[in-house]
Amino acid sequence: MNVIISNKNQALLANLTIDVIKTLNGVFTVDDLASQFKNFYFNKMIIDITALDNYEDINTIQNLSVALDMSKVILLLDDSPRVNSPVYLSSLVSMGIYNFTKNVDAILFLIENPNTYKDVASYQNLNLSADDMKLNDNSVDNTVGYIGQRIIGIKNVTDHAGATTLTYLLKKHLEKQYKVKAVEIDNSDMVYFNDNNIDTNVNSFEVSKYLNNLNNNETEVILIDMNKADIEKYCTDVLYLIEPGLIQLNKLIKTDKQIFNKLKGKKIILNRSVLNDTDVSDFEKESGSKVFYNMPNIDDKLNDNKYIIKLLKDLGFTRINEKESFGFSIFR
What pLDDT, in 10s, does the model give residues 201-250? Predict the structure, then answer.
């Protein structure tokens, strides 16, 4: 069972589809929360940061980290420049606070898949001075960066496993309910989808700059067709695509005998798959890996594809509605 502490985001948090044992709404001091939940058992505590008195002062969050087990806390950040400054975010990571987001829909994902240091290390700046850490009015950096966005990389493990097409289909299914941007790294195959909301041929050496230039208010989800770029550190999630045909698998193993050891704990998608549940189970045993999703060959012209919808729901996108449809035309 979970606890929700809300204030300005009360309505949004009330719509979360989770089991809730206790809800508080208002503004509370750290001492208030510490006294109420000192001996209170809960799974996760979701805290709307605006429910904390004087939350823009990083010392308040530091006191919170002492009072509560922060591995069980998910912070929902607001849009204030101070909270979104690199100094503030770096301070959260330095305190061991890894589960924070500006996206309410990401909360469900964090409940089941809590962040580790590796997931948030890019926000930590170890070169900050003591004066910077005080977050005085004159030292606030107004750079928002890309905190709170879902950044999902899609990468082929076997050759031509379908990352480009899957990236496009995920975008088409998401964009009815989310503000989505699709990006292709170091290539321009996606230009043939004739979609103005896809950026192609983004240089892999400029990914950080590109992501920082995207406006949080205009982009909730970024889908990245990674190609061969080594940019996993910028993603909140990476989908590793394997086409499970015999030739492709044998070629993969011959190229890299340790590939499945490298993929342990990662989200493996069997794409363009003809495997049934028994076959998938056999694949997992033989490879020593865990398959996150088994995606069959699908018609990329379908308005709504149940397999794409199921994958998105498994990834924690709660707004997806199976009755929604988008117009598709081969001519654009």
Answer: 999 888 888 887 776 567 888 999 999 998 888 888 899 999 999 999 99
Q: What is the DSSP letter of 314?
A: H
| Residues 73, 37 contacting (CB under 8 angstroms) | no
pLDDT tens for 101-142 read 988 888 988 998 898 888 888 777 655 544 444 444 433 333
Phi then psi dihedrals of residue 277, to 5 deg? -60, -40
pTM of model > 0.85: no
What is the rounded distance in angstroms from the CA atom of residue 151 to the CA atom of residue 119?
11
| C-alpha triplet 174, 175, 180: angle, nearest 5° | 95
Q: How far is CA 220 from the centre of its chain?
A: 10
CA distance 41 to 140: 37
Residue among 160, 124, 154, 309 at smallest CA distance from 236: 154
Tell me if 166 sits within 8 A of 154, measured CB to CB.
yes
Sign of the Cα torsion 205, 266, 152, 108 reads: negative
DSSP at 52: B
